[in-house]
Each structure stands twice: as structure tokens, then as C-alpha cells.
Amino acid sequence: MADGPEAAERAGTSEPDVSPQGPPLASAFSLEDRPASGLYALAWLIAVLGAGLIGVAVAAAISENQGGSALLLAAGSGALFLAAALGAGYQAIARRTRRGPDAYRGPSPILLVAVVVSGALAIGFALSLAGVRLDASAGVLASALIVAGLYLGSVWLFVVREGALTWREMGWLAPGGSSGRLAVAFLYGVAIALPAILVGVFAGALLAALLGVEPPSPLPEPVDTQGMLVNVAVAVLVAPLGEELFFRGFAQTAWTRDLGWRAAIVRSAVLFALVHALTLTGNDFSEGLRIAVVAVAARLPVSLALGWVFARTGTIASPIGLHVTYNGVVLVLVEVARRASEGGFG
Question: 157-213, pLDDT tens digit by residue?
Fold first, then answer.
């Protein structure tokens, strides 16, 4: 942030309340005084359709109709992706008309998370139905590239292209800086990684012991050298770039405009941690919930550190440096623990 966190906090504004009065949630289903009301209604209709298809898919899975379930899941997630995209487009239009120039005037980061998650699910189900089969390492890399592409595409299409934020405002060019300043900012993030690692690993291990679960591994166990190289590429390149673009560059910058930098750091950190728990599972609901709690708790310290260094430096290079270092060290620790459990390194 070129003018520092305090200036951004002073610039924060909130959206005027123009919602119709009535019973709770009534305004969400009203078209009164809405720009592009047809787009809004269409987004809701497709969302209801998608939710219905997924509900039927769950029923089909319970009845052991796996083929029908897969098809319905693909259609349902595709419908939710389209609904979220239409909703993001509507929100960009509505906020341009309702918010002042100092406020954030693009779609909510939470809505764009829905675009990315539903889009990734839809692509995954579609590839499965098409008979595309990838080995473990190729699947991990393909999944990471798809998610990173959706992060980039959603921010470009709904935020940058709509004029809500620029790449410079999201920290991709150091304000008045140079390549040397970017390098220093990157190394600053690297230096902050160690305390974040210590707190995150300790918190995750302690909570895992209290809840009686194994701390979830961020990546699948590699079975060969190729698998290890893929894990390294995903952990220290693809994930840091895509996630920092979205959660710090976009989400934190957007929320800083409206709420101030402190609240924005907390919001983006919580969102970041929750998204990483979405795909975790266990042997039953209770175990899955406990694993998700451990995953969120372990990531919150580093999430807050990522937000803080971004607010401090105003360039995305700092959180990328921290993220790369954190993921790399955690990957090494996981590999060391795995080899030790298998009987050593010989």
C-alpha cells in the first residue's frame, strides 16, 4: 500500500443500505431497486437448480447409482459455477452504481471463492466423465494448475477488467519501486517465515494430539522422484503465486478499502484457512470435522503473517516469499517424518 496501512484504513467506506425493508432475508429475493435485476434473478435460479442437482446426486450415491451420481455432480457443480459467475457480474454492476469512488466496487471475495471452488469441481467431474485418468503426481499438478488458473481468471475478469482494482493496487508492481526493492521485499517475507512456521506447526500438532487425529498432509505422499518434484513445484511455485494473487493481492486489498487493514488481514486469513479445509475428509463426519479444525488452526498463524507482511510492504513479493519458504520447509519436515517412520534414511 503506497500510502501505508493507516491511509487505507481512513479511506475505507461501506456500501449504502439500499435494501428493501421487510422480513429477514426478504431483500435477498427482491428485485426492487436492483440494477441488472434480470441477471440477479437468473443467478439465483441457476443456483437453486445446481443445489437441487447436487441433492439428487447425493441421493443417487446413497442408492449406489454411481454413474448417475457422477453425471449429476458434474451438472450441479457446473450450474453452481455459472450461478456464482453471474452473481459476481451482477455484484460488480450493482456496486459501481451504489458505492463511492474510494470504496471497493467489485464482487465480494467470498463470491469469487465460490466461482473458483465450483469451477474446479465442475472441471474435475467433467474430466472424470470424459474418461481422463491421471496418475497421482500428474493429478496433483493438474489440480493445482486448474485452481491457480481459476484464481487468475476470476480476478482478471471480474475485478481488473471491471475497473474495481488494478494489478498495481493489488501489489504486483512495487509503488515507485524497482526490481531491487522487489527482491528485498521477497527476502523480508522469507525472514518472517520461521516464526510463522514454529507457531503454525506447534498449534497444529498440539490440537491434533488433543483431538486425536493425524495432522493432515498438505500434499499426497510421493511414491517416486517424479512425485517429489511435482510436490515441490506445486508447493513452492504454483500454490504461492495463485493463492497470494487471490487472498492477499485481491481479497485483502478489497476488504482494506471498506474495513481497514486490520480487519482485512483477519478476514483474508480466515478465508484462506477455511478454503484449505474444504477438501479434507476422514473415516466419518466426526473425524473429518476434527481434521478440518486442525488444518484451519495450523494455517491461521501463517495466514495472519502473510497478510501482515503484505500490509507492511505494499507489494505481493513479500507474502510470496513467506509462502514459498513456509511451504518448502513444511514439505521437507513432512518428508523427514515420513522417512523416519519408515526406518531411517539409509
Answer: 999 999 999 999 999 875 555 667 888 889 999 998 888 888 888 888 888 888 888
CA distance linking residue 280 with residue 201, whole number of Å: 18
Cell of 252: 485483502
- Please enumerate in sequence order all residues whose Cβ is within 8 A of that of 202, keeping only pairs 6 or more positions apart, or say none: none
Nearest in space to 114 (alpha carbons), one of 238, 275, 251, 256: 275
Positions in the chain whose pLDDT score sits under 70: 1-29, 65-68, 174-179, 218, 220, 223, 341-346
Cα–Cα distance between 165 and 182 in angstroms, integer?
Answer: 20
Q: Could you tell me how far CA 224 lies from the centroid of its own chain?
A: 29
DSSP 8-class letter at 27 = G
- Using CA atoms, how far residue 129 sits from 24, 55, 246, in Å, is 41, 19, 29
Asked whether 98 and 18 are in contact (CB, 8 A), the reply is yes
Query: Do residues 214 and 207 make contact, with C-beta atoms less than 8 angstroms apart?
Result: no
147: closest CA among 172, 122, 171?
122
The Cα–Cα gap between 148 and 151 comes to 5
Q: Can you tell me the distance from the alpha carbon of 303 to that of 275, in angstroms, rounded to the nearest whole number? A: 12
> Do the beta carbons of residue 119 and residue 157 sit within 8 Å?
no
Q: What is the Cα Rg of the chain in Å?
A: 21
User: In 3D, which of 209, 238, 234, 205 has the Cα closest to residue 219?
Assistant: 234
For the chain, the domains span 34-164, 174-346
- C-alpha torsion sign, points 267, 294, 117, 114: negative
DSSP string, 155-214: HIIIIITTTS--TTTTTSS-TT--HHHHHHHHHHHHHHHHHHHHHHHHHHHHHHHHHT-P
Q: Burial of 233 by CB count in 10 Å (0-12 exposed, 13-18 middle, 19+ buried)?
A: middle
CB 322 within 8 Å of CB 305: yes
Per the structure block, which three cell numbers stand in for 55? 441433492
SS3 of residue 139 by DSSP: helix
pTM across the whole model: 0.86
CA separation for the pair 155, 109 (Å, rounded) = 9
